[in-house]
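The freezer alarm interrupted the setup, so I double-checked each line after restarting. Inputs confirmed:
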Amino acid sequence: MNKEEKPPILWLQAGIFLGTLLVAAIGVPWYGVSHGFHWSAWLGFALVLVANGISITAGYHRLWSHNAYKASGLLRLPLALFGAATLQNSILVWASGHRRHHRYIDDFDKDPYCANRGLWFSHIGWMLRDYESSREDFSNVRDLQRDPIVAWQHRYYVPLALAMNFIPPLLLGWITGDWIANLLLAGVLRLVISHHSTFFINSLAHYWGKQPYTDHNSARDNGVLALLTYGEGYHNYHHQFQSDYRNGVRWWQFDPTKWLIKAASWIGLTRDLNRTPDFKIREAIVAMQFKHAEQSLALSINPEKLRTIVEQEYQQFLQSLQQWKALREQWYVRKREKLAEARDDWYRKWDQTNLRAGFRELEHALKLQQKRLEQINLQLRLRMA
Ligand SMILES: [Zn+2]
Ligand SMILES: [Zn+2]
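Predicted 3D structure, all chains:
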């Protein structure tokens, strides 16, 4: 595509991005040097920044785009309000674009922030011009249009976005007496940081990091990005298991959004949290390990002995998958029976305990296989060197 063919620039959006960036890069340090910022202005900045960030990750993204859990109106309302403050458009527009991103990932014409179109395009470029791939189409968010809070936020998006950008810093200014400091920090600097930390997910998290769960798309797992994005850096996992309320699936992975959603369930603000079964997660990892082993076997010297081992492991893997599927079917049958009968009895409890033990056994076997394959892949890499 040559320069003449590029769609027209969206001046309002470009102006907001550039204007706020200039104020954050020049105005904030200038005020800091000439007047100084009181710690209370930094505290206000941090609070509004976190409220904005969480509204996007827990609200716009995991709740509305992916239905990864359900939330009460008491939580949905602040998520919608602080989400509007981030100036990333209404929930409806955002979720519609994001669902297209997942469905058509890496597709040049259909993925609105397609990483194949370059780092700049996927970070911010896609919002600066009137691209065909960003055209509004709400046919994929009919479920959200039925949520009264989503519909209300979409209808009054502009006044809500303005109010939520000015009221918190003005309120902080009124409390502390330093209007300019709060407008600069909780107003402008907060907006710029909040923007780019979200945009990193579309750009860097599709370029930089590992692909432990799938290599069918460009999404990457990146622990450093997770630190900057309230846990959303585990993007390879997320693209493979998008309806999971967790992105950092291991307990030690930094995912404050996951912890918040979980903690909110203890006081009834969230419920029906979707979790991918542990076996399915390991299945994806092990399948990738076999893929790597295959690639290395093709390139290594005298691979016969290792090839036999890998083949044996693969047969065992297929067997585990079949056993898991059979167990899952049994589980569904029992679940239906339970619904049909009103009362619980000791036999069903005993039966369910047995089923659970079966699942755990298979999970454990797959965990051991994952460890063995790690060793095999290590040996294969050494043979290639
Ligand atoms: Zn997503
Ligand atoms: Zn993505």
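Quick read of the result. The mean pLDDT is 93.
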